[in-house]
Amino acid sequence: MPEFYELNPINKPTFSNLIQGGTSEIKLKREDNYDYYQDIAILKYIYHYFFNHGVIPYPNYSENFINYIEASIPNLKFHGQALKTKIILLKRRFLFILRIVGYDPNIINPIHREIFDLSMGLWG
After folding, report:
1. Count of CB atoms situated within 10 Å of the CB of 89
2. CB 78 within 8 A of CB 86
3. Using only C-alpha atoms, what is the Rg of the chain?
4. How far apart are CA 8 and CA 96, in angstroms?
5. What pTM was computed for the model?
6. Which is one Gene Ontology cellular component term of this protein (predicted)?
7. Which of 56, 77, 90, 94 could be a cystine partner for 119, CB 3.0 to 4.6 Å?
8. Rounded average pLDDT per 10-residue block, the chain, 124 residues
9. Cα–Cα distance between 120 and 92 in angstroms, integer?
10. Chain center to CA of 18
């Protein structure tokens, strides 16, 4: 004899802050944590230092170089040793990308492209 099963309706989940076509809160939080404009500002002032002094210091950055960048960028999040580390990380990230994708990567995001182009001029 066949058995009969009763199908219960499934409750649809409700979303409180759902906007059609909007970005998720997780994505917004991830983007807010990293400030690409700080990277661009740091790279631009490394350029300024290079054009004013004729040299880009090696990773054992001088106090004069770090002070120049700190004084040039208002609201800089990195100071002293943290700024030195940030510059080293920018250079390492650039060299890593260069090794993987080469000298002319297809970068669509304009901020990432500007960071790559500035880095290419400094370390490429």
Report:
1. 11
2. yes
3. 24
4. 55
5. 0.70
6. nucleus
7. 94
8. 55 49 50 80 90 79 89 89 92 92 85 92 87
9. 12
10. 27
